[in-house]
Amino acid sequence: MGLFDEAKSMNFSLYGQWLGIISIILLFVLGGVGFIGHVVFSIVGWVIAVILLFVEVPLITRCCPTGPRFDSFIAYFENTWFRAILYLVFAVVMFLSNLIGPSSLIACAVVLLLAALCYGGAAVKGQPFASSSILGGTGVDNVV
Predict the structure, then answer these.
(1) In this predicted model, what pLDDT tens digit does every residue of 103-119 receive, in sequence order?
(2) CB 136 within 8 A of CB 121
(3) Radius of gyration (Cα) for the chain, nearest Å?
(4) Shortest CA distance to 11 belongs to which of 132, 114, 135, 112?
(5) Claim: this prediction has a pTM higher than 0.70
(6) What values do phi and psi take at 126, rounded to 5?
(7) Residue 105 CB-density burial (10 A; 0-12 exposed, 13-18 middle, 19+ buried)
(8) How far apart are CA 120 and CA 114, in angstroms?
(9) CA-CA distance, 144 to 18, in Å (whole number)?
């Protein structure tokens, strides 16, 4: 199943996963750009990006050696409700960066919030979690 088939599937957890990947890229890039003005929030953004990388890309958890505690922590977020809460908390943290002053980190916060809304929509609709086959997951074929 390709990207276009996943987009047509109307599975909000897939949309949330792709928004999560976009937010990871934005957190790394905009964290570097805004490092001078927002040192603390840039570092927090990088930490959030690494956590989301392990949560969103199943292939990485297979390639990188991790401990059983970390694996159980990541497995906790296979539920769409918990992913929605995780993304909402991360979005609030990134929105707080604007209390110091306006910065480009607001884009990260908006994309994190959109991902939280997608995962929340999947949870409300009762859609099971699906991971994109492009990123090493099972895709939506095994879910629908």
Answers:
(1) 889 999 999 999 999 99
(2) no
(3) 15
(4) 132
(5) yes
(6) 75, 20
(7) buried
(8) 10
(9) 18
Per-residue HEC secondary structure of the chain comes to CCHHHHHHCCCHHHHHHHHHHHHHHHHHHHHHHCCCCCHHHHHHHHHHHHHHHHHHCHHHHHHCCCCHHHHHHHHHHHCHHHHHHHHHHHHHHHHHHHHCCCCCHHHHHHHHHHHHHHHHHHHHHCCCCCCCHHHCCCCCCCCC
- The sign of the CA dihedral 63, 52, 26, 35 is negative
Contacts of 60-66 spanning 24+ positions with Cβ under 8 A:
60/136, 62/136
* pLDDT above 70 coverage of the chain, percent: 85
Closest by alpha carbon to 50, among 31, 72, 75?
31
For 129, the token pair is: 């979690």
As a whole number of angstroms, the distance between CA 92 and CA 95 comes to: 5
